[in-house]
Write a structure and sequence with these properties.
The protein has 210 residues and is mostly beta strands. It is 5% helix and 58% strand. A hairpin with a 2-residue loop joins β13 and β14. The chain is elongated.
Length: 210
Amino acid sequence: MSIVTSSTSQISPANERIYHQSSLIGEWKGKWAGNNQDVGFKVVNIRGARAQVEYTHNGHTERGIGQVNGATISFGSVSIGTKNGKDAVLLFSAGGGKASAYLSKQAPPADDNRLIGSWGGYSSENGKSASFRVLSVNGKEALVSTTVNGVTQQGTGLVYKNVVMFGQTQISTDDGQNGKVIFQVGSKSFTVPVTKYPPADSSSSVDRTA
């Protein structure tokens, strides 16, 4: 069993291949099948068998840590699962009562640059770790800080669509939560899967024991 520490924020490559757990990350909204009331579920990140989540129902939001089990996440009396990364089923079961809701993944805001933030990860396949911090994006340029192969560098990178290139290192992301860092050492290239860390103000009050 792997040990999940506070410095990690990633999905294991084996679980991703089998369950596509990254498709759960994001904001989901829909309505309960019985009473047609609004319900929402947000998966902020996945750290091994734990997920930072937000569950919105009856006009209020509960935040905490859910348990990841294969292709589903359980949080208190509810569990969520998706097969295609676009539609999900939310099941409620407590005190003999049961309910279900069909949710749709919400698109991120158009003006939200998915690359901005702190990213980190480790590859069990090549034993390499990497961190990549995108401080700001201004047109085709990004202010970045990277640590790869034990070396930290800061400077200005080039932005192309969902990729930031900086020296012999680049980061890319499709969903704004999971990505990959590719860097070159000598004549060899290494790929490290990375995930975006939650903002400091939200992570400080949640998941202290992760």
